[in-house]
Design a protein that fits this description.
Layout lengths: L1 H19 L3 H6 L10 E5 L2 E4 H12 L8 H23 L6 H24 L5 H9 L4 E11 L2 H12 L4 H8 L10 E6 L5 H8 L11 E3 L2 E13 L4 H27 L7
Antiparallel strand pairs: 1-2, 3-4, 3-6, 5-6
Length: 274
């Protein structure tokens, strides 16, 4: 019984993999072939299979990758497509489509498809020019730091490093000797990084340093204890609108989705039961 259950679950997993990755574009239009999607390309046990369905199958198998398939690969996919239909029909004849696992998985996948379609409809709404320009005006110049650090596992080691720096030992030498970070080989140099990319603790520490100076106190993060040195700082101006408009459109689209979800949660009646 246990082995039969394992075999069924493997079959179910293989069957669902065919469907779970199906892109919405393939669902809506099929792959672009220049031929009618409803053209029958095979008949399996009396069931007509169409070009559009096969194109959707191919899109599922290759995912989002841009792949130019040769004839041999297409033949292999077509053979797999026929095999899937045979397995599907056999499973239906055996009543496996009524198995609780199948019913639950199919319903869950149907919900995923419908929800993704809802998102796609929302994202098709064009971003108005005035909204784009308003978002651009809200952009601010970015402060960047060129930093170096020495990362240690223990606070005591970090304090020893600070003491050695105070005695005149070169920062780079100490980084190569003491740091457990991958930057140790290059003397602890992190390079240029924006303030927003730093953790709050490191951001505050960097803001309190003068170029060429190191921190007098170690800074703790989830990775360990940092001894920080500020090598240089600069302000990066906002790029022209033409250079950032695509990113802004994506950000505004994401905001619309977030707002859409928030509105649904506010208007919906949600009851959580533990």
């Amino acid at each position: 019984m246990f082995e039969r259950d394992i075999t069924f679950r493997r079959y179910l997993t293989a069957l669902l993999l065919v469907f779970v990755l199906l892109p919405l574009q393939a669902i809506a239009t099929g792959a672009s072939t220049g031929e009618p999607g409803d053209r029958v390309i095979a008949v399996v046990n009396g069931k007509e299979l169409t070009l559009g369905d096969f194109n959707a199958f191919v899109s599922t198998r290759i995912g989002e990758r841009q792949v130019n398939l040769n004839q041999q690969q297409m033949n292999a996919l077509f053979s797999e497509y026929i095999n899937r239909e045979l397995v599907y029909q056999d499973a239906m004849d055996k009543g496996w489509d009524d198995a609780p696992e199948v019913v639950s998985a199919v319903e869950n996948h149907r919900r995923n498809i419908v929800a993704r379609y809802a998102f796609s409809q929302l994202l098709q709404t064009p971003i108005a020019r005035d909204e784009l320009e308003k978002a651009y005006r809200e952009l601010k110049p970015v402060r960047e730091y060129r930093l170096s650090h020495i990362l240690t596992a223990e606070e005591g080691t970090a304090r020893e490093v600070i003491g050695a720096l105070g005695s005149g030992k070169p920062f780079g030498d100490l980084a190569r000797e003491k740091s457990i970070d991958s930057t140790a080989a290059q003397g602890g140099e992190i390079g240029w990084i924006s303030a927003e990319q730093l953790s709050p603790a490191l951001r505050e520490a960097a803001a309190g340093l003068r170029p060429g100076s190191h921190g007098k106190e170690p800074v703790r993060t989830e990775f360990g204890w940092h001894v920080l040195r500020l090598d240089e700082t600069r302000i990066v101006p906002v790029p022209p609108l033409e250079e950032v408009q695509d990113d802004l459109r994506r950000q505004l689209s994401n905001r619309s989705i977030t707002r859409y979800i928030s509105e649904l949660r506010e208007e919906g009646k949600i009851e959580i039961r533990q």
